[in-house]
Amino acid sequence: MVTGWVDEIESEVMQHLRGHEPVSLKALASAMKISETLALSYITILAREGKVTIGGLGVRDN
For the chain, how many structural domains are there in total? Predict the structure, then answer.
């Protein structure tokens, strides 16, 4: 495991968010070339740390 990789990814997420607020989960995942599930995981970690806020939740019909 590469030391500091989590900090590096968090930095990338934060950098993208700063330049594109507000941003959808889909747009963030696409910009970072990762799955929406992985993007949500990173956002959840950052939200728990108080570094980002999560808004715009709703029910999506499939």
Answer: 1
Q: Does residue 35 belong to any structural domain of this protein?
A: yes
Residue 44 amino acid letter: T
Domain extent at residue 41: 5-48
pLDDT beyond 90 at 58:
no
Residues 6 or more apart whose Cβ sits within 8 Å of residue 39: 13, 25, 28, 29, 32
* Residue-level length of the chain: 62
Distance CA 51, CA 10 (A): 10
**pLDDT of 5-51, one tens digit each?**
778 888 888 888 887 778 888 999 999 999 999 999 999 988 899 98
